[in-house]
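URGENT: need a sanity check before tomorrow's submission.

F., can you look over the Replication protein record below? I want to be sure the sequence and structure line up before it goes out.
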Amino acid sequence: MISPEWYYEEHLKGKSKEQIMTSIRGLKQRIGSLKNSMENPYEDIKIFMHPSEETQLYWTREYLKMAKQAYAEAGGTYILSESEARAAEFDENIYSISKITFRVKKSADIFHKYVIEVLNDIITLSEFREHGLIKKRHKKNVTKTVFLYELKNLHIGEWRRRYSAKHDEFNVLNITKWEVEFEYSNEFKPKKFGGENAYPYNFDRFQMLFEVD
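Structure tokens as predicted:
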């Protein structure tokens, strides 16, 4: 992958607004394609890619930032799509998050519930048993600023509200349901995401915040 600065020199410098907008559309399509590929629940074996899809996604996001900046410099006014506006709204309120509740339930298992509470500069993680009693509780060894920065880098505002996979004779007996709810200290309404046997492309990284293996 090339640097954003080199991308600008090669693809954006001296271009018209229309040409830059074409680049923007192409980059957004590429981001969508990469996320769809990474979220494919039936793609058990992926062809080895170098750089990885995750790396490609990171740099394509950087190119998109550069393209939007170039578009503004060329006199254009970029209008956010509905999904982009929703993601931007989530990010704008991320430092007002007060509580994150993460629930997971497997068909043949009890549910697992994890709660992260944000109070001043203290981040507390609690794990609950099925009947609601606390199984364990401890303070995470990270500051609020660092924790929310890591959370913001997951681009959760871009997640779909629901993720689902088609059931077949094999996985109908192995259904895993999950739900995440974000609560805020300001007037921003709580946000929920969830799914059944399907997950956002970076779900493993998200679970790491809750110290889930």
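My own read: Strands lie at 97-106, 111-119, 122-128, 134-139, 162-164, 176-184, 191-196. Residues 17-39 form the longest helix (23 residues). If you see anything odd, call me.
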